[in-house]
Design goal:
This protein has helices at 87-94, 170-175, 178-190, and strands spanning 9-11, 19-22, 28-30, 37-39, 41-42, 65-72, 108-112, 116-124, 133-141, 145-151, 203-206, 214-223, 230-234, 241-249, 261-266, 269-274, 279-284, 299-307, 312-321. The protein is mostly beta strands. The two termini are 16 Å apart.
Length: 324
């Protein structure tokens, strides 16, 4: 497996006016007067990730895992032999009714061993009503490893949790993503007084697309029409890209107007949410052209968010790729 290099910064992700940015080499042009930055995030497999019983194989189900975030809890004395997570207590807590939680519903136990557990958590994917659900699975073991992951085949944009129309940068969206929230649910189940970890404290990896060593997420919002376009350029040096998008109707409907809709458009792709299903997530294909000698051309792409009259919406695009 390839380990990514240190992440770089993408300049200018914004949705108020036309914005253009490069995946690589990270040069941007913009008519926007209030520039925002969105960081390029590295993807790398967890080093030293082995089962608590010290066998060569891990209890972690790699064949079932897609996009993931992981974190390791340290022992209080720094020793490797001290159990760092109480596996049985965590499994019991995660599968119990959490009460009036804004994060999740009661989880389903997938597997429980002497030194590890796997629980599927139904997570609330947006602060809207009715609340849409995305399932995130968490693996945890007594060596302190916590891995939160989407199932194989699930688009990576499904980690997005819509919080508010005011959050219009990829950094803000990632700070609130479902994988980070799921990791914190494990930490809280292990120790109610434990401090939460943030997006910057976890690492990411896509078990299904091991060649991808970087990703970026950016967003836009719309009110009663279409957002300003967000444009991005993919240089010819980037060969393969895994792209996905998510759209949410931001208005609370409570089973109301089923004619409402929201969509993210990326070139000819459309990801559309139609009430009463307020959230839609899908993979998309970015069309790219080739020169006469069959080499890729640099390509320009555009994303917009659109919504039915009188409503508000938000959307994200997530790109995973192999840095040249």
């Amino acid at each position: 497996m390839k380990i990514s290099s240190v992440s770089r910064t993408l300049c200018v992700i914004a949705a108020f006016f036309v914005t253009a940015w490069w995946l690589y080499p990270h040069i941007a042009e913009s008519a926007h007067t209030r520039s925002e930055t969105t960081e390029l995030q590295p993807l790398a497999p967890p080093l030293g990730f082995t089962a608590a019983n010290a066998n060569d194989d891990t209890a972690f189900p790699e064949e079932k895992a897609g996009f993931s975030a992981y974190y390791r809890v340290g022992g209080s004395d720094g020793g490797e032999s001290e159990p760092r997570l109480n596996v049985k207590s965590i499994a019991d807590a995660l599968t119990s009714d959490p009460g009036e939680s804004e994060i999740r519903k009661a989880g389903n136990l997938n597997e429980l061993g002497l030194n590890f557990g796997i629980v599927e958590l139904p997570m609330y994917a947006a602060f809207v009503s009715p609340r849409p659900i995305e399932n995130v699975t968490v693996y945890f073991d007594d060596q302190g490893w916590i891995v939160a992951y989407l199932p194989t085949g699930k688009p990576a944009a499904a980690i997005w949790k819509y919080k508010s129309v005011g959050d219009t940068t990829g950094n803000a969206e990632l700070a609130n993503n479902l994988l980070v929230l799921a990791i914190n649910e494990v930490l809280k189940a292990n120790d109610a007084s434990a401090a939460e970890v943030g997006h910057s404290a976890v690492a990411y990896y896509d078990w299904e697309n091991a060649d991808c060593d970087a990703f970026v997420l950016f967003s836009a919002v719309a009110n009663g029409g279409a957002s300003a376009p967000v444009k991005f350029v993919i240089p010819r040096t980037i060969k393969g890209i895994q792209a996905s998008a998510a759209a949410v109707i931001a208005s609370d409907l409570d089973g109301g107007n089923t004619a409402n809709w929201a969509r993210v458009r990326v070139d000819e792709n459309e990801v559309r949410a139609t009430a009463p299903n307020l959230l839609a997530v899908s993979s998309i294909v970015l069309e790219r052209e080739y020169d006469e000698d069959n080499t890729l051309k640099t390509s320009l792409h555009q994303m917009t968010v659109e919504v039915s009259e009188g409503e508000s919406a938000a959307g994200v695009v997530m790109l995973l790729y192999d840095k040249p």
